[in-house]
Write a structure and sequence with these properties.
Length: about 475
């Protein structure tokens, strides 16, 4: 033992948060806020700024938040905190295009990342018993050592922690098999559109094919437009659905039928109710968005009322329609899509991939139109192919080395819906024996099998806060033994 080791006060227990994007950073801030006992919170995140992650670390000015700043609610008691912060900090002077015609503001996405980083710093300063430190590295494995964990880092170090919170980022999109076999080794494929500089290789007059027609596709079109791209863009998906826009005017009275009544018992009942209430809203001169906002606010309650078979039916048949209506697009980006479709430089349609061939420096893609299955395959010749099909959540355990290491130890398992990780109602990881691990938890979209709605605000903020409250109570009640070896 070292000199005076007995007299030294033991170091407080450590909570290691693997992933410092929005969910991980916000969880850490809320744990610091709620904790009644000394605790060290170490956020393992390779990016220099906490709170950004994939979504909010983009530096492209064309990438805006997809809902008005006044609805980016993190604190129920301060519903307009981000909007107030943005206006107070001179955001409109720096970015006047953020202000839309209805008075709402849609800041650039990186600005929201800076706001979250400030929240982390503020909560750290407000509670002296909690310490937050940023380990600017990547976790490559997590090992259970007795009742604690050892997190091994890419740069060679390791840290010990009594609790591990998994807040890893979205995995990259999965490549369609035909694309992977014919284009994966060539320069024309952009497999991960969020990789730094991914679009820089696209020339201003090159023709582009985008696989996927959701929010990421819209971001890529907006980015290309800002860069002065003049080539033709073809975007397709199986349904050909574009993200919907926001209501043109504010809803005077929120629609609250789902809030006031029992949750639908199955998918058919939910679908019938939504269709009926959308028609009723139309008759009352209310937008359909009001109905979907009410469903969204009750999404977790509705999801938990469905059995596994109903959840699978939703994912197979209705998820694409829900995503198009739930995850709406910023009006600035919506206008870009409309303008480009109007002038013929953007073509969006429903189709399936039939063939992929390289032709010298070009790529020939064969597409079968969905609504005309007997028509001959249509061929599109392009210079670049961008994959925007969304994260491949079903492969995240195998792709992420930290998660894979826990899985190999039997401490973690993928969920049965291929959405992420199996957890219980408290966010605690369920191990391979079907037992909840009280010192291993998940925050963010990888817990969607349990929670359902965990991809957009405010729901994506509610779950990390609830898990933070749970961990704070656990720390206070269990009084975890401190680990003196922090190397």
């Amino acid at each position: 033992m070292g000199v005076n080791a007995v007299a030294q006060r033991p170091a407080p227990p450590r909570v290691a948060v693997i992933g410092g994007g929005f969910c991980g950073a916000f969880f850490a801030a809320q744990l610091a806020r709620h904790s009644q006992v000394p605790v060290t919170i170490s956020i393992v995140e390779p990016r220099a700024m906490l709170g950004g992650g994939v979504a909010y670390s983009t530096t492209d000015p064309a990438h805006r938040i997809n809902v008005p700043a006044a609805r980016m609610t993190l604190f129920p008691d301060k519903p307009t905190d981000f909007d107030d912060w943005f206006r107070r900090s001179g955001g409109l002077d720096a970015d006047p295009e953020a202000l839309w015609s209805d008075g709402s503001v849609y800041p650039r996405r990186a600005v929201f990342g800076r706001y979250v980083a400030e929240i982390v710093a503020r909560q750290h300063d407000d509670n002296p018993v909690a310490t937050i430190d940023h380990v600017e590295d990547q976790a490559i494995s997590v090992e259970r050592v007795g009742e604690s964990y050892s997190i091994h880092l890419a740069q060679g170090g390791k840290i010990a922690a009594e609790i591990v919170v998994l807040a890893t980022s979205h995995p990259p999109p999965g490549l369609p098999a035909m694309i992977a076999s014919r284009l994966a080794d060539g320069p024309g494929l952009i497999a991960n559109p969020w990789a730094p500089g991914a679009l820089e290789k696209i020339g201003p007059n090159e023709d582009v094919l985008i696989i996927g027609t959701g929010l990421t596709m819209a971001d890529m079109v907006a980015s290309l437009s800002r860069r002065g791209h003049k080539g033709h863009i073809t975007a397709f998906s199986r349904r050909g659905l574009l993200p919907r826009g926001h209501a043109k005017r504010p809803v005077p009275i929120p629609f609250t039928w789902f809030t006031q009544h029992e949750a639908p018992r199955n998918l058919l009942e939910l679908t019938r109710q939504v269709r009926a209430f959308v028609a009723e809203a139309r008759d009352d001169k209310l937008p359909w968005q009001a109905v979907f906002d009410d469903v969204r606010s009750n999404g977790q309650r509705i999801w938990r009322g469905f059995d596994t078979a109903e959840k699978r039916r939703f994912l197979r048949h209705l998820r694409v329609f829900w995503d198009a209506h739930r995850y709406r697009i910023a009006p600035q980006v919506e206008k870009i899509l409309e303008d480009k479709q109007r002038d013929g430089s953007l073509h969006v349609f429903a189709a399936s991939l039939r063939s992929v061939e390289r032709q010298n420096d070009k790529i020939n893609i064969g597409l079968q139109p969905r609504r005309r299955p007997k028509d001959p395959t249509q061929h599109v010749t392009v210079d670049r192919v961008i994959i925007t099909t969304g994260p491949s959540h079903g492969t995240v355990v195998d792709q992420n080395p930290a998660l894979s290491s826990l899985s190999k130890q039997g401490l973690l398992q993928a969920d049965c819906l291929s959405l992420g990780i199996r957890v219980d109602a408290f966010g605690q990881v369920i191990n391979s024996a079907g037992v909840s691990e009280p010192t291993s938890l998940v925050v963010g979209p990888l817990a969607r099998e349990q929670y359902g709605e965990l991809m957009g605000l405010p729901q994506v903020a509610t779950q990390p806060n609830a898990v933070a409250e749970h961990v704070a109570l656990y720390l206070a009640s269990r009084k975890l033994p401190a680990n003196l070896d922090r190397n």
